[in-house]
Structures are given as structure tokens and as C-alpha cells.
């Protein structure tokens, strides 16, 4: 991965930041693309302090003109795009408002479309590239109170499969990663807001729903993203890779 240009959306925290660190520490030139300027700049400051090549670009993935401008101004080859930016929502059909649906579609679905569209032409002209899309176990499993979120991640998974088919002859590989419950700051914030005083109890309950008996770590998802982007995965395209502790296949 040394000196390859890697673009990672939603890279300022959680899974995205773990992916940024994995690629940067492996010698890649990483462009951290995130809406949160403060978090993005802090992450870059920390990593450049290690002597790594990481650059922050503020980006709203739902804004196509902004995506085209920001990615268009990145020089050199576009070797890897990791479409990680996403938002969540809890609710069923009746409790999901139109604004909720629009927000999830704009970021989770249109964001993947915008960023992939912005890189695909250059990947074709340079002779290949890799696109990795962050889906979810919610894309294929019926999970309670995840109506809009499941919709959006199902769309991400199907975009992955069609892009892989459309560009396989251009030496562009496209795969999806579907995590289950991953222990990120988002989880901690959610538990603190929703179950004050019972955070550890609820956390342990959620962790126990994973057949392996724990939540995954962001680094474990980052390891999969790195592998799929590497030459060791040259024969892999058009697939969804579960990082789920057995959630989909072994769930009791």
C-alpha cells in the first residue's frame, strides 16, 4: 500500500478513523474526508505527528458538486476509495418520518453514489482501482427498529454488486463490508443518552447478542478493509464480507 492514494469518507471517528490509521501506518497517502472539521483536523494532527501522510478535506458526501470539487482537486492516481461515511436511525415504519428517510438516503445512499461517481472515471483511465463500501448486517438481516437504516444499507450492498459487475473489465474491484455491533464512541454516546446509569448493563446485553460473546473493534473492520484493498485480494470482487462475530450465520 506504500504511497498509494487512499480516500476514506467519514474518517474522523469510529470505524473510519481506524481505517485511516491502518492505511496510513502501512505507508499509504491517506485523504481523510469528513463533515466534522474539528475532529478531522485533530485526527490529522495526531497522525502527522507520527510522521504519516494524512490530509484532511472537509466534505459533505451528500453534496455532489462539493464531492466533485474536493475529489477532483486530489492529484495523482485514486487507488482506493472507502465509502465509510454514514448516519444511523432507530425506528420502525410508523416512527420514521420523511425527514429521517431523506437524511439517511442523502448520506448513506447518495453519498456512496456521489463519491464513487467522482472517482470511477479516473480509476478507469489509470487502469484500475478499488472501491470498498461500508454496508451492514442490517442490509440482509431483519433487525428491529432499523427500517430506514436497513433500507439505506441494502441499497449500498446492491450498488456494490452492480458497480463490481459494470467495471470488472476495467480492473476495478468493488466489495462491501457488513459489520455487526462494533464498539465505537457512537455506541457509548447512544447508551449514555438512552440508558443513563445502565450503560454497562445494556452494553453487556448487546455484546451477548453476538455469538462470539463480544462486540467487534473498529480495528477488526479496518483489517478487512485493508485486506480487500490489497493485492492479496486481487481475485475478490462483487461480494459482501461479514465482520460480525457470527451474527448472521450462527445467531441462536
TrEMBL record:
<protein>
    <submittedName>
        <fullName>NAD(P)-dependent dehydrogenase, short-chain alcohol dehydrogenase family</fullName>
    </submittedName>
</protein>
<dbReference type="InterPro" id="IPR036291">
    <property type="entry name" value="NAD(P)-bd_dom_sf"/>
</dbReference>
<keyword id="KW-0560">Oxidoreductase</keyword>
<dbReference type="InterPro" id="IPR051122">
    <property type="entry name" value="SDR_DHRS6-like"/>
</dbReference>
<dbReference type="Pfam" id="PF13561">
    <property type="entry name" value="adh_short_C2"/>
</dbReference>
<dbReference type="InterPro" id="IPR002347">
    <property type="entry name" value="SDR_fam"/>
</dbReference>
<dbReference type="InterPro" id="IPR020904">
    <property type="entry name" value="Sc_DH/Rdtase_CS"/>
</dbReference>
<comment type="similarity">
    <text>Belongs to the short-chain dehydrogenases/reductases (SDR) family.</text>
</comment>
<dbReference type="GO" id="GO:0016491">
    <property type="term" value="F:oxidoreductase activity"/>
</dbReference>
